[in-house]
Amino acid sequence: MRIAIMGLALCVVAAPAAAQGALETPAGGVRLELVAGWDRPVLRLQSAGGGTVDAGEVTGGQTGISYGGEIGYDVATSSATFVGGYAGLSGSTAAACTAPSSIARYCVHAGRNLTLGLRAGVMSHGVAFYAQGGWSNGQIKDERTSALFPALNGKGSDTLDGFHVGLGLQARLPGRAYAKIEYQFTNYNGFEFNLDGSPIKLDFDRHQISGGLGVRF
What we know:
Number of helices: 1
Mean pLDDT: 79
Oligomer: single chain
Radius of gyration: 25 Å
Structural class: mainly beta
């Protein structure tokens, strides 16, 4: 009887310790998640002057909702640190349009965004703090509509490479699930062109705050 009581006591003491150890160990393996949040693409236009356009800089942005998914793989490097890689695909509702007119209306939309990168972090009691960064490829879509001049109607798109960096918090949920919140900054490679003899440079940045729910396999 005494042996049975001692065994039961050991089980009671060992169970919380085992659970705490599991929480403190970074979860590894394949993960799959859905993300959504706040998205603000920003356009910066710089003119060197010299033509019909005065020298100066104009910055503007539009706010929308981002949505998408990410797949990744993490590896524990110690009892409280981990590294991993990921790939993501997202879309956005962010768009800017000129005021409707009888001649034409122009709209610019944020298209799909691809990410590929690495992350590293520390974890304690089931909560991970991590930093990440990598390559991005964003799409810009434009649309022109005119009731008066149908020949002006049309759509187009372009893609821009760039890089992103970010910080995030990730917490374990029951089972294999987890939740996260993340801030990410992206800088896309701009381009230059001439407008009436004035050199024009366009640069694109992006700020995103998103939340996600995922599962590990």
